[in-house]
Amino acid sequence: MKECMVRLIYCEMLGYESSFGYIHAIKLAQQGNLLEKRVGYLAVSLFLHENHELLLLLVNTVVKDLQSTNLVEVCMALTIVSQIFPREMIPAVLPLIEDKLQHSKEIIRRKAVQALYKFYLIAPNQVQHIHDKFRKALCDRDVGVMAASLHIYLQMVKENSSGYKDLTGSFVTILKQVVGGKLPIDFNYHSVPAPWLQIQLLRILGLLGKDDPRTSELMYDVLDESLRRAEINHNITYAILFECVQTIYTIHPKSELLEKAAKCIGKFVLSSKINLKYLGLKALTYVIQQDPNLALQHQMTIIECLDHPDPIIKRETLELLYRITNGQNVIVIVQKMLDYLKQSKEEYTIISLAGKIAELAEKYAPDNEWFIQTMNAVFSVGGDVVHPDIPNNFLRLLAEGFDDGKEDEQLRLYAVQSYLALLEEEDAFYPQKFLQVMSWVLGEYSSLVTDVDTEIILTRLHRLLKKTFVTPETKAWIMAAVTKIASRTSCSKTVDKLIQEFSTSLDTCMRQYAFELKHLCEDKVLMKSLLPFDASCNDIVVDASLSFLDGFVAEGLGHGAAPYKPHHQRQEEKLSQEKALNFEPYGLSFASSMSSSGFTGRQSPTGLSFGSDTSGNSAETGHKETNSLKLDGVRKLWGKEGYLPKKENKIGKEDEPLTVPCGSLLAGHVADPPVSQSDQVATLSEEEKEKQQLASTLFVGLGSNAGVSLMGKADMATQKFKRKSKINETQNTEETPDIQNSAALALGPLLDTLPSNKEGHEGDEHTRSRKASPCSSDTVEDNLAFEKPQSLKKPGLDNKLLHSSLSSSSLFADSNIEIFHPLPSAQCESANKTLLAPSLPGELAGLPHSEVVELCQSDDLALHLCKVWTDDSLLLAVFVSNKNTSALNAVNLVFEKAEHFRILESPAYQFSVIEAQSVEHCQQCVQMDKICTQGVLSGSINYQSEMETRLEFSITLSLLDFIRPMEMTTEDFGRLWLSLSNDVKQNLKMSSQDSFSAALNTLQQKLKLHIVDIIGNEGILACQLLSSVPCLLHCRIHAGMLALWFRSPCSALPDSLLYQCQKVMEES
Fold this sequence. Notes:
By secondary structure, the protein is α+β, with helices and mostly antiparallel strands. The chain contains 42 helices and 21 strands. The strands form six sheets. Strands 16, 17, 18, 19, 20 and 21 form a six-stranded antiparallel beta sheet that branches. A hairpin with a 4-residue loop joins β8 (861-869) and β9. The longest helix is centred in the middle third of the chain and has 19 residues, at 405-423. The chain is globular. Pfam families: Adaptin_N, AP4E_app_platf. It is found in: Endomembrane system.
């Protein structure tokens, strides 16, 4: 069998399917001797994937091998676990792998750490409780175990760097030992000590030292040593130097290190080797935001790279130019990008470059004509592979316009004129998206052109409809344009001809469009009222509840029709009534504090009692399909959402050649601005003169005194196309986070019966500005104490649970604020100054809130913060105290854009005047856009005293800041439970003295859950993530274990709340 399995592996390598032998590979891993078992595990790792149905048969074998005393068997089991074990099988092996971290053999400990790293990637909440063991692995006596733990720490530091700053000293010490050659010689590569280990450590240090002077100070010496020792001319040392440069420019800057890093970049850029030149351009692109003058030192080399034969070098050079674009050099840089775009054949490059050109054109366009010509070139050269957002944003810009009405009309007029000129060519071919843009613009604004007869425009659109290359989707856009133009004309022969021609078309859609146009033309009054001029931005009232069908529904119900049930609810009821096989594994013989609970079926917990078999997570093990085991097609029927088959639509797109050159669209090239020629330039060759002239146009505006406009940073230059503020306000109020949209769509009318409070928050919009300042601050984390919340106490069900009142100290636990203090010298100077104590205004003082804590301070002012938890929002009250004896003018408070949070009002707030020795405050309402257990909201405050000063601060927000109790009845809970598909199950070990009521009391107080009902040893609780994402919890005590089962329409919310539950139960 061993030989046969080797041959099957060879067949799979050649591309032949050998699925008939998969089961024999599993049998070989289960029953063979040591050599056969090794071949069986190898075959399984190559044949199967994480979602393969046969993987379930391997669980017991892996558990048995993990408990074996044979090291080879344990190693094979750990290897297979780290390769193909899925998320739902983690609880079966997690306790055993935890024990292997204490094993006496280094290879076992190393493989155990690698398995836990895999678990952290696919299910981070299931390994949150063993972070202390990760720290032990970092300090392991074996270098291999320590190196394996760095992968986990790199991932965790990326997600939350503030939680691991205490380990900075350990990482620095390890890097010093590595650079100093203290590791065994086996880790050397071409005489370089552990290069990949150095790269991992440098990345971790860069994340830890970002915007943190105190932490960065610990790294300066070891970074200097790393740069000095990496002098061997070998590719691996170049990689180390590149990571050193990135780390130096990421952490808090130090002038000596920056100079050495700049020299290193210069060596890379000037190298004749292509790989090193690419590294130099990559590094230069990365650091250009911190040091724009560095590009001026190498401007001639960058010019030469534009004509480099290697396309990768040219692409990276264009990326660099994209970063240094401003209003003075945008024309030349965009032209270089267009030239490369015309030559490129790669789809990814076309998509990327087209998006960048469109962004630069919108931001820095010098005039309307250049903007329209550039966008026409993008649509023509990019073709149909350009991102859909590009034409959509372009049309939205034309529709919304600017604050200047005259400017709007000129832009639209030029767009119409350019498209009419393009459509005048009969044999020209244009991409479909470009034709759609033309059709929409002509339909909306063709009446602005007074020197062209409407009949001519209709004729050209009619000619487009008869082209064979025009797709049905584009024809729909053209017909819509014809209909809009026809509404503004009394009669048209072309429209009559079009109606007659397409009324008998074989295309049903075109036939329908023709009949609609015909009936609209018969009633011009109705046609004009339906299609008003330039009304694309007007709000359209849509009856999303379909209330006009209420009568039809009532009539059907009156005749005995069954009420409507969603598809997934019907599927739930059908599956719950069928007799099905139990796919859940048997209970394990060992005690596990973190194993998952097994609830068979997907019935509502309000009506049934659940079993306690151990099982994996989520809906994949909850449904049963038939009376017999069917392995065919399981992957297609079962997924993360449960039994919800998904249709796979594969739409093939035919590539069509572009026959219209870009040059014909750009009418009139802008001449290069003249440059002064000295005696030295006169002696140069013509080619060198051209390069000098190109450099003067590309790098204009990058001097030390010039206002540099860098992508990714706030640009002080006025943006050419600035949309109307009223449109932005409307869009901001209508936009909602993805997690809320998905929740609303999934729940439908179920949430309409539940109580909810929504209040709008309004704030002034101010211009956001950022200015560089040498001021720095240190990071300290303080725990907040809280006042007793009154608004979150709700009556009811208190007689079912003893001591269930809300605790003032634990209701809003784990809400830490990261505080930035100034430098010690500034603290000493300001220690003797007295500061007015800020306090909440009367309307907020009665709400649950945190203590007022200091965010940052200087000699002139201090910034304090207080969190206020209302029923439907998290309110940040920010206090600005003027410590001077004179007034402060133009104090600007700006919140940065965060990954997980969103400021509902304007992120900037301006205090026009803050009187001497007084306190002003503002309020900002925060919403969680992307679910996380903890995140950081950063910002800065600018003010003008003797000089322009800027202070930075950072606020740590927890998931619990956005969780509120959700009141509902038991019946509502049951209906909502069946409609939710994302779930997580887990068993938590309870101490012997803890009772079920005490556990529920703890969850109610610290997680802000509402207890819906308690029946015996089962309880149901509910909460919601602001503003309307519910999460339901069913808990049950059995054999000293608390079985938790979360359900929510958002897949990330149950995981995050489960982690908070684990944390709360461990603390209690």
